[in-house]
Amino acid sequence: MLVRRAYIPDAQRPESFDAWPYTVPCVAELAGRGLTFTAPVTMLVGENGSGKSTLVEAIAEGFKLDSHGGRAGRKYVNDRPKTPLGEVIELETTPAGSRMLTGPRSRRKGFFLRAETAFGLLNAVSGKYGYWDEDTAEMSHGEGFLTVFGAMFRERGFYVMDEPEAALSFESCLKLVGLMHQLAGTGAQVVCATHSPILAATPGADIIEVGEHGTRRAKWDELDLVDHWRRYLTDPDLYLRHITG
Ligand SMILES: Nc1ncnc2c1ncn2[C@@H]1O[C@H](COP(=O)(O)OP(=O)(O)OP(=O)(O)O)[C@@H](O)[C@H]1O
Ligand SMILES: [Mg+2]
Q: How far apart are CA 167 and CA 190, in angstroms?
């Protein structure tokens, strides 16, 4: 692992929590007692607007990953100001994480991938740096992603992802689970926000449910997300009659 905990140092904590992002319960909690990472793969799940992106973006910024979707070590887009939470967040790193974070840019491995900019990342790195032999331009969106994931995950790094499932089919999601699971064994670390019950089921992943309560650890089969999918797949009409009727 590379990062053990995210927190806001005392000196940086705001006096009042009345303004965004501290109005988001999981951010208030981060400011209070921090967020610990207990496994190489952490999955953040929770309703729309619960604060997952706010958290993962700031965590990526804390590790100096390009918060607009690019790789560490190399810029692919121009600098933009950090998010308010990214400005103040600190990461408690392991010795390996600390060597990456304090060393030269090129030593920092990993990337921040978010759904909105993932396609840009793919285009920007496609064919340029020789990480993969295949030409992603000739692949479908999802195929390209998997190729890039597969190639980039060879490096022991810090991988922060926001809904990487957006472009992926069921089977491709399974492949991504396989890649993340493999990666976990190499000393790398993944922090991933997701709505996918498939990704959330990554073996050994620490699942954090984000919501009104702030954050809490949860078992996969007790997640609201999983419960809804299970019921919906068993009987869609149970849900649809509320929508259409
Ligand atoms: N720049 C911003 N300024 C003010 N409020 C914001 C900003 N960005 C997000 N928010 C609010 O912060 C809350 C958390 O948003 P966030 O995007 O982190 O949720 P999320 O869990 O990622 O949701 P989703 O599952 O839809 O991606 C939401 O209420 C959102 O409206
Ligand atoms: Mg989000």
A: 19
Hey, which bits of 13-146 come out as E strands?
35-36, 41-45, 90-93, 110-114
Q: Is the CB of 116 under 6 A from ligand 1?
A: no
Tell whether ligand 1 has an atom less than 6 A from the beta carbon of residue 114.
no
Report the CATH number of the 3-244 domain.
3.40.50.11940
Q: Which regions in the chain score pLDDT beneath 50?
A: 76-78, 129-130
Would you say 30 and 7 are in contact if contact means Cβ atoms under 8 Å apart?
A: yes
- Distance (Å, whole) CA 245 – CA 243: 6
CA of 214 to the centre of ligand 1 (A): 14
What are the sequence ranges of the domains in the chain? Answer: 3-244
Q: Dig out the tokens for 57 from the structure.
A: 């973006």
**Which pair of tokens denotes residue 96?**
């390996």
Choice from 17, 18, 20, 228 to test ligand 1 binding pocket (greatest atom count within 8 A of CB)? 20
Q: Is the peptide bond before 21 cis (omega within 30 degrees of 0)?
A: yes
- Of 17, 23, 24, the residue with max ligand 1 atoms within 8 A of its CB, to mutate for a pocket test, comes to 24
